[in-house]
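Bumping my old thread because nobody answered last time. Still need a sequence for this structure:
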């Protein structure tokens, strides 16, 4: 089988070709940033972690085998960085801001009301639904959340996701199925009544194993 284009670029990176590396970064930087941002819920931090991911790609290029597909290899590195960050957060929960610090100014209530009045109702409802989906995703165990994002947003195959998560194909399918069912159950009351009950987040880091 001929090598895929990404694998050819990586073979050049292994020989010190910085132009090939820059091409890979241009191709995958945004998808990797989107994956990390949705997994961690922090766009600013996602940029820093994405940079660290590509630094690791360059440093570990000598370990890459041209016979392996590049995307699972890349997303495995991103997964490891994300899991390390989630573990760090679990060990060192963010402390509340000092109450002595001045609060950021908020637009007057009348301005907010005017903005809502002029915005199309359909757009407001769609934005609210997307917000609730993000909240429901954030409540899934990390591996389920990763599996859902890799499948739905990044459009990776079950086989590729299994490699990234380091589990069997059947376990991967189970993670995705259970994640989807959990999302449906979480969103169903909101879709039926418009009510949203804040879920209690687990105190400890969950690996989300099957």
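Sorry it took so long. Here it is:
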């Amino acid at each position: 089988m001929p090598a895929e284009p990404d694998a050819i670029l990586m073979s050049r990176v292994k020989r010190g070709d910085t132009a090939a590396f820059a091409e890979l970064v241009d191709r995958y930087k945004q998808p990797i940033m989107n994956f990390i941002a949705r997994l961690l819920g922090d766009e600013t931090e996602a940029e820093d972690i994405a940079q660290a991911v590509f630094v690791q790609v360059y440093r570990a290029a000598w370990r890459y085998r041209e016979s392996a597909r590049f995307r699972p290899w890349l997303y495995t590195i991103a997964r490891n960085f994300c899991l390390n960050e989630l573990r760090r957060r679990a060990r060192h929960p963010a402390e509340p801001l000092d109450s002595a610090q001045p609060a950021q100014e908020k637009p007057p209530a009348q301005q907010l009301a005017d903005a809502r009045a002029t915005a199309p109702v359909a757009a407001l409802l769609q934005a609210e639904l997307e917000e609730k989906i993000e909240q429901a995703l954030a409540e899934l165990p990390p591996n389920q959340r990763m599996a859902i994002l890799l499948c739905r947003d990044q459009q990776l195959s079950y086989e590729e996701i299994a490699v990234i998560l380091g589990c069997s194909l059947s376990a991967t399918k189970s993670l995705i199925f259970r994640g989807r069912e959990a999302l449906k159950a979480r969103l169903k009351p909101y879709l039926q009544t418009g009510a949203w009950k804040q879920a209690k987040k687990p105190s400890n880091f969950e690996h989300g194993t099957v």
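The two ends are 34 Å apart (CA to CA). Let me know if any region looks off to you.
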